[in-house]
Amino acid sequence: MADDVTKPAAATKETYDDRPFHSEDLPPEVRAPLAPYKGEAPASPAWFQWAIAQEPERSFVGSHGARLEALTWGEVGRPGLLLVHGNSAHADWWSFIAPYLAKDFRVTAMSLAGMGDSDWRENYRFHDFAEDADAVAKATGLFADGQKPIYIGHSFGGGQVFFAAARYPHLMRAAVLVDTGFGGPPPEVLEERKKRAEMLANIPSADRPSRVYPTMEAALARFRLMPPQPAENHYILDFIARRSLKRAPLPEGGEGYAWKFDPNMWDKLDRSGGFFDGVMPKLEVPMIHLYGDKSRIIERRASGEKSFLDEQVREIEIPDSHHHVMIDQPLALVAALRTLLATWPG
């Protein structure tokens, strides 16, 4: 039973250095945080159990020929919130956050094309992501109160929210970015992907480009965050990881498990028009950035990486958090969002 599982020791967020890495050099609690549980779900606190018990309305919305996954909480007629996840993630990354926001809002979490249970595409474009978000917002009732919705996006999803706010300000009332950078994946993540691609190119098997694991336990043992970081809330990692998997045929026959996201999404992403020629656009949409005080995003920006967040965007720090704020400090994120949205944008 989950309650009988002893939580393994985790790397402390004060001492772990999540700078450039090679995967074999990562400590086991970062490289494979769920492996010690051997497929069992870690024990979780009451607040989390309550949140995931609030089953959303699950639907699919059509946009640009793709079916997009949408999870919705809260009554129609309340102000609308649209939640957008990070790269290779999915809508259920918000499933333990959204129910607390749904007390005052109609809340939809979407899975971007190529991720979660949304369809994959031959190419991914910033403009399409923006139009996808608008289609989901309209289809799930986020305009029903007579106002435009507020968009909230984490990481890569925050980048898409920023792009939509700058290019299509008529789509939203305000925007909240959660630990969002604009330089793409860290260099070490790109190197890891390159190494993996080279390795798979030399394997004459049917499991390319997505590896298929024979059991749920084997798949969960391979789950880790990108960029890599320590995470103490293993029950959240387990919840996210299980919903990141789909059944897939094994090369030797039968079925196993593979990750849902399109492994070639980053290579298929059309970046043209997405970075405003390196110039900060004039924002018409009120915007705030919440970030983790130990985040790689903030570290990279401090070292000189280009950012579009200047004096136009107010920033609020979430203490004791790395990049994945909803995993490190979920209740602090809930409190920050609820307080913010009660008084802003006015």
Automatic annotation (TrEMBL):
Keywords: Hydrolase. InterPro entries: AB_hydrolase_1 (IPR000073), AB_hydrolase_fold (IPR029058), AB_hydrolase_sf (IPR050266). Residues 14-25 have a biased composition (Basic and acidic residues). GO terms for molecular function: hydrolase activity. SUPFAM superfamilies: alpha/beta-Hydrolases (SSF53474). Coiled coil: none annotated. Residues 1-33 are annotated as: Disordered. This is Alpha/beta hydrolase. It comes from Phenylobacterium kunshanense. The lineage of its organism: Bacteria, Pseudomonadati, Pseudomonadota, Alphaproteobacteria, Caulobacterales.
